[in-house]
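PROTOCOL LOG
Step 1. Enter all chains and additional molecules of the complex.
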Amino acid sequence: MATTTAPQLKAKDFKGKVDPDWCPGCGDFGLLNSVQKALAELGRQPHEVMCISGIGCSSNFPGYLSTYGMHTLHGRSLAVATGVKFANNELTVLVTGGDGDGYGIGGNHFAHTARRNVDLTYLVMNNQIYGLTTGQQSPASRTGMKTKSTPFGNLERPVNPVTTAIMNGATFVARGFSGHGKHLVSIVKQAIEHKGFSLVDVFSPCVTFNHDNTYDFFRERIEKLEEVEHDTSDWKGACEKAMHWDDKIYTGVYFQDKDTPALNEQEPVVEHGPRALAEPALTSEQGDRILKRMM
Amino acid sequence: MSNGYDFAFAIGGAAGQGIATPGNILARIFVRRGLHLHAYNAYQSIIRGGHIFLTIRVKPERVDSHGDDLNLILCLNQDTMDRHARHVTPGGAVIFNSDSITPAEVQEGVQLCGLPIKDLTEDNRNKLVQNTVALGVMLNLLGVEFGVLESALGDQFKRKGQDVVDENVKMAKAGYDYAKEQFKDFGEPLPEGDKPLAVWTGNDALAMGGAAAGVKFYTAYPMSPSTGVLHWMAKNARELDIMVRQIEDEIGVANVAIGAAQTGARSMCATSGGGFALMTEAFGSAAMMEIPVVFINVQRAGPSTGVPTKTEQGDLWQALGASQGDFERIIVAPKDALDAFNTVVEVFNLTDHYQCPSLVLTDLLISEGTFSVEPDAINMQPEIDRGELITEPGDGTDYKRYLITESGISPRAIPGLPGYAHVAPTDEHDEDSVLISDEYTNPHKRRNMVEKRARKLKTFHDKVAAPAIEGPADAEVTLVGWGSTEGVIRDARELLAESGIKANQLAVKWLVPFHADAITEILSKAKKVLIVENNYSGQFYRYLRSETGISVDGHIRKYDGEPFQPHHVADGVMDQLGDKKVTRDGVFVPFQEIMV
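Step 2. Run joint prediction.
Step 3. Record the structure below.
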């Protein structure tokens, strides 16, 4: 996969065959633009990248890129992506989806993929609501929020993706806002370049069904971590900052552990190249050794 | 039942009493001597305690089942003596520690071989050495020279050091010599075969089939009785350059396997029915995305958590109904361990050719059984056909992953290849991967895509042979089974022949697509058809009927967790052909005599 002679591409070269079917004003456009820019700025070619999603509005994402992709079952994107990365760790693997897909139905895979530190870039378009099913409570919906499934107000507490990811062993944890495109490009680039599991929780307002967490809601509260005193190697400090919500919400890189190697790099079998591209047949020596042990 | 040498041993005790080690030593001795064996281990889902009963049947020729007779049993506890001593056939022997076990009543002509273990082991505090003493006794009764056991013990214990080897050899010799003085041997010495054989379990065979087929990605969540596949893969992963991952649950396993398969690796996962239930949504998604991936369901007695360590053929309808929607897949039930090996190889070529998921539906009887095998019969370098795979870079224009073709098969490009970037979607999509489920719903495109995928398997019957009758063409009864019952039905036919009943058999292996026309043709010529299956409701019969409209003359079904023994099937045939004393509503249910 040599890229030395490949042309430097522009963000538009990463646009897919069809235009997004998202509602006008949807926060997901912000991330899509940022990812296309980030990939171009990092000098990637479309065939070197694979984007894997689950189900939900935001999970249509791979269809809007010119890269390889999979649009998998609800909640299963991280599992599928784990298989992709382990089979071919030369691919840049992005995983995209929403808060319901990732923190709800896919919560088990979220915890374990973070723990394993598989080199994936997980971009969650968090709109704190189920949009495609027309507006029910999501695991990220705030307490008290009125939705179609919580008409009298949500009694549950929302998940905190940042602390959850850090406590589960993610080695890169960040937050972005789709209304802050430039900042998001920078975060996405750092996440892609990080060797290990990276989570970028992106506030991506649902203009149709979430009237609580609007662009204005975030604009009034967001403060960038780069602009305050913050040590990204301090997981406790990162968790403290992640607990802010009502008055102030931080975006930027919360935490990064640069020392723990990615799991897919640790398996000795990858030293012989991606398994996906390996000659499938066993050698006669390999076959004979196996048979001899059975005698 | 055969005219020649046919001998069955059993070792019984509680979990933790060390039954596996003498079992393994005996198996190695037999196969090195060129003798065939078939071992069935009855056990429970506990690590210590309970009752384990390992049966090993040995013959100079292929052994098709664990048989009906017990010639020699080693009782490691009183429970085993009380349960099983009476099953030993005349001329046989019961070996036990006479310091702690009281002999039970046995049939006439059965030798009770009590061993004064304390004296023989000189008060050795390691309780497991009594098993080695007993091995010495067994080998003496079988007429095997001591040197054979000595070298087998050396192989078994060399990892633990020379002291352990020496101690075991000493204990074995004490037993061997004691038997020579005190007991009568079986007269006919253990025969020798032409050439040494190998030994494997069905789980080994499934894993090896994968390795030989070029599996480069294996993933699983531990679940009895399929876990042996994971163990084999994990142990051999680095030597064979196979990526092996244990994942958090079977939902994850199936999806990880699909991701690896889409990326181009031959990818496999194994589980049991409960795990497969969790995998089913992904199974269908592989069909929709046209990703070749092989699933294995090793059936155990169910439903729910069921009876984790017992066998059953109860997941057929689960397999048939696995995943929502109407889609293409292959389902196959191998007939024995060697067939399991070959089936995995074959099914990988088919699944790559047709770009669809496949399910190997097997059961505990095969997966956890231990069998002899002729090493020459195992082809570790079979032909690998990856189907219509694009491997050279393209110019980036006009590639349609789901191109509508006459065969229904669309050339597949592997991610990473320049010029073929595309998305594989679980939503219905057009030829060029664009979703037609949301904004772009289009009934004509939907119909075209459904028909394209359906066309793929139209050539399946050209590539996969239909089952055939085994046994006399003029048989008065045809026994139909599927999957693992082929061997026991073969043994039952021998028993029936001894009673003057001519029977033949049809062993069905490929379940989906089903050879409906060929099977209809075969069964329409049969005089009487009985279906033998290891479940309560006749799942295979109901499937056969739905695919062919055939009705049959009777059924033999067992669903107590234990596998059929030959006489169970033969008794069923005789009852159905005769007075139908036991048969109720057309179904004969054999009685399980051995309580395990």
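Step 4. Note key features.
The first strand of chain A starts at residue 49 and ends at 53.
The mean pLDDT of chain A is 96.
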